[in-house]
Amino acid sequence: MSTHSRDDAIGEANASRKPAIIFIHGLWQKPSSWDRWIEMFDAAGYAALAPGWPAEIGGASAPETIGEVAAHFARIARALDKRPALVGHSFGGLIAQILAGRRLSAATVAIDPAPFRGVLPVPDSALRSAWPVLHNPANVNRNVSLTPEESRYAVANAVPETECDALYASSQATAPGRPVFEAAANPDPWTKAQFDTETAERGPLLIISGEHDHAVPPSATRAAFERQQHNPHAVTEFARLSLRGHSLTIDHGWREVAETALRFVRRFV
């Protein structure tokens, strides 16, 4: 999505006077991964947007930091007439929570979100999923691709091999390595993968977990929920979806996830 088309989408959302919702994809995905979600949420009466990350819009190359990505989506949220709902997957789920911590979300759904500071320990499967990036320190300044085998383990382990291959061919994209290193530096007090989980205006939050996710296993999503649940001012809920892996937003079972998110958003927005 170019800057022009992004601005057009914001203008159209404001002109529609419908409640807006921003979808934020994760690493190795594209904004088009949300196309079916946008169709569903538009039909439900929302003005849905799925902007790309800064490099996707501006054409910049790696590195791209968590702070830069959060600032980029914060600008989009602030350009809307009313606080939008936010739905993010993986690193997009982390970004959505960061924005909620900045009081920029009317309701947030974080799907298998990348961990923020304090979400420990890191499961072995998460380290293995991130290893294609972390094994080479030079990747901090590079865009990184997953091989089909790496994608099968980290993304599409819970679907048949034929579907895994189809998802890789249709939706796989290169991604900046720096956010993976930043998230891995979880104990660092200066990490950008942190935010105020207890702010009074965080808004309602639903964390969705895929039972068989390797990249962000249920233990990690549950730990994120338990930290977010300390917020005394806002609703915090958790949903664990059986037999689902990290590709749950784009594979054959996407509708179950989208309907779970939509039911939550409808309660508040």
UniProtKB/TrEMBL annotation:
Q: Does the keyword Transferase apply?
A: no
Which N-terminal stretch is annotated as signal sequence? none
Going by the UniProt record, its keywords in alphabetical order are:
Hydrolase
* Ranges for domain AB hydrolase-1: 21-259
Query: Which Gene3D superfamilies does this one have?
Result: alpha/beta hydrolase
Report the protein name in the record. Alpha/beta fold hydrolase
Q: What is the lineage of its organism?
A: Bacteria, Pseudomonadati, Pseudomonadota, Alphaproteobacteria, Hyphomicrobiales
> Which molecular-function annotations from GO does this UniProt entry contain?
hydrolase activity
Q: Which Pfam families match?
A: Abhydrolase_6
